[in-house]
């Protein structure tokens, strides 16, 4: 097996606010070399780097908006998020938790800092991903997978190197907790200083890592600092991470869907006609109703 | 040949040849406009017509109580002007404001007036635009006189399919001449009707 090498290291774009509650650096699709096709099926990655929110009696967040054609995955590293949707679902994503929402044929949702957390404020760190759905599943019924940290599969690494949380996919034979529509891996490596870990991922998978805390050395050579993302080449299967200090790293890999992408705002379909349908259905109330 | 929406707009709506298109473009300036900036203030005489290359403009009046009434939105590929101010050299009754960060072509009014007196191709082009404008104004008047809130909303989403995701409900309600509460009710009733069907 050959080594999977780094193709580019992306530094965080200047942050912007999504609503008033999420201060994010966008990596996918706006960073040069990280468009929707390059990391297919991961078509959007917003990273709320560690940010201190002051206390607020009115929870900050994003008001009602629709989605169709993909899944949104929110990983909470610090802070708490509350969400509600037009099918009556809702819940709280606590620290270390993951909310995997399959928007598919369409939902309206809103997401805010959790009410009690908002009153004290504090450190807030999140990743939001959009995972594209295969054409055949885009109009399937919406669903939720709420994963609290204690329910996420974990692998303890040898030599007190740390742990790997398997959110989805597989690591060393341990299956991920979330079900997916196409083959992909979503892992958190939480490494102690000098902790090492090796990953084996098919060459064809689009693969990237995001360093949320600390810094890592990849394949014994290149250093990836905090808040940076490293994209790998689609060659080779193995890569190693060594934590230069206590570190948290998100590892993403997925088999590309290789289907046409027609995207506009919160809708990601395969054709322009399907996009027009999405706007019409949303405007005509077919996504349901949710109070602001 | 550049790749602007504006160029495409000029060439696809009229038999304007390269020479005339180039002439119009050379008398226009393309500007980046920040969200919340004004392109026209009520009381001023308008100096330009505006073509939206990217972004969104709104044209509105403000009544004696300070309430805003939106006459028109102009997203990408739309023209916005105040023909009264432009042709009759009157102070405008309207504000034109950028709702999003926008990229706008400023078309000099003297050029438009000169061409609309001298160039047959431009006259035909301008006539087409004028008739379309009159058609939409007539429809607006009839709707404001006799259409239900739901009928107005359904027509709005035909005309502006993506604006429900780009502007607050208060803007849409202002355009439709209904209260935000009525708009909310209409949208909820539509959703309930679809839920009933499924």
From TrEMBL, chain A:
SUPFAM superfamilies linked: RmlC-like cupins
Residue stretches making up the Pirin C-terminal domain: 187-288
Essential cofactor(s): Fe cation
Cofactor comment text: Binds 1 Fe cation per subunit.
Pfam families assigned to the protein according to its UniProt record, in alphabetical order: Pirin, Pirin_C
Binding, Fe cation: 65, 67, 109, 111
Swiss-Prot/TrEMBL keywords: Iron, Metal-binding
One MF term in the entry's GO annotations: metal ion binding
Residues in Pirin N-terminal domain copies: 34-131
Classification via InterPro entries: Pirin, Pirin_C_dom, Pirin_N_dom, QDO-related, RmlC-like_jellyroll, RmlC_Cupin_sf
Name under which the protein is recorded: Short-chain dehydrogenase
Provenance organism: Algoriphagus hitonicola
From TrEMBL, chain B:
Matching CDD domains: CAP_ED
Superkingdom classification of source: Bacteria
Domain Cyclic nucleotide-binding: 31-118
Record-linked InterPro entries: cNMP-bd_dom, cNMP-bd_dom_sf, RmlC-like_jellyroll, WH-like_DNA-bd_sf
Keyword vocabulary terms for this entry: Kinase, Transferase
Entry keyword annotation includes Transferase: yes
Gene3D superfamilies (UniProt xref): Jelly Rolls, Winged helix-like DNA-binding domain superfamily/Winged helix DNA-binding domain
One GO MF term attached to the UniProt entry: kinase activity
Pfam families: cNMP_binding
Protein name per its UniProtKB record: cAMP-binding domain of CRP or a regulatory subunit of cAMP-dependent protein kinases
Species classification: Bacteria, Pseudomonadati, Bacteroidota, Cytophagia, Cytophagales
């Amino acid at each position: 097996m050959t080594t999977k090498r780094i193709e580019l290291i992306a530094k965080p774009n200047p942050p912007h606010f999504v609503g008033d509650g999420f201060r994010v650096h966008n990596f996918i699709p706006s960073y040069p070399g990280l468009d929707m096709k390059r990391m297919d099926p991961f078509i959007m990655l917003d990273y709320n780097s560690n940010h201190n929110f002051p206390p607020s009696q009115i929870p900050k967040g994003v008001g009602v908006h629709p989605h169709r054609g993909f899944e949104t995955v929110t990983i909470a590293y610090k802070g708490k998020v509350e969400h509600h949707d037009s099918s009556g679902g809702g819940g709280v994503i606590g620290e270390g938790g993951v909310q995997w929402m399959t928007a598919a044929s369409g939902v309206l949702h809103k997401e805010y800092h959790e009410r009690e957390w908002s009153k004290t404020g504090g450190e807030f760190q999140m990743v939001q991903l959009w995972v594209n759905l295969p054409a055949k599943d885009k109009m399937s019924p919406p669903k939720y997978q709420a994963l609290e940290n204690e329910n996420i599969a974990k692998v303890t690494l040898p030599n007190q190197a740390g742990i790997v949380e398997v959110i989805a996919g597989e690591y060393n034979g341990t299956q991920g907790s979330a079900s997916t529509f196409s083959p992909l891996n979503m892992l958190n490596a939480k490494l102690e200083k000098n902790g090492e870990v090796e990953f084996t991922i098919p060459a064809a998978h689009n693969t990237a890592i995001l360093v949320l805390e600390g810094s890592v050395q990849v394949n014994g050579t290149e250093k990836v600092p905090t808040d940076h993302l490293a994209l790998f080449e689609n060659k080779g299967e193995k890569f190693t991470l060594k934590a230069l200090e206590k570190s948290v790293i998100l590892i993403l890999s997925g088999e590309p869907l290789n289907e046409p992408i027609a995207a506009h705002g919160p809708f990601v379909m395969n054709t322009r006609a399907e996009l027009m349908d999405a706007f019409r259905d949303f405007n005509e109330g077919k996504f349901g109703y949710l109070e602001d | 040949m550049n790749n602007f929406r504006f160029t495409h707009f000029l060439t696809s709506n009229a038999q304007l040849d390269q020479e005339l298109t180039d002439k119009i473009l050379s008398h226009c300036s393309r500007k980046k406009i920040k969200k919340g900036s004004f392109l026209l203030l009520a009381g001023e005489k308008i100096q330009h017509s505006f073509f939206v290359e990217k972004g969104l403009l709104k044209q509105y009046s403000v009544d004696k109580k300070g309430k805003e009434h939106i006459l028109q939105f102009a997203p990408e590929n739309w023209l916005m002007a105040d023909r009264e101010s432009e042709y009759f050299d009157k102070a405008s009754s309207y504000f034109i404001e950028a709702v999003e960060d926008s990229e706008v072509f400023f078309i000099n009014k003297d050029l438009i007036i000169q061409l609309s007196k001298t160039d047959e191709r431009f006259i035909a082009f301008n006539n087409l635009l004028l008739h379309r404008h009159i058609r939409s104004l007539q429809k607006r008047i009839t709707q404001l006189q006799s259409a239900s809130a739901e009928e107005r909303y359904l027509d709005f989403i035909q005309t502006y399919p993506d604006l429900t995701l780009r502007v607050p409900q208060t803007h849409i309600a202002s355009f439709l001449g209904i209260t935000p509460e009525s708009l909310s009710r209409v949208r909820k009733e539509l959703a309930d009707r679809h839920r009933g069907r499924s």
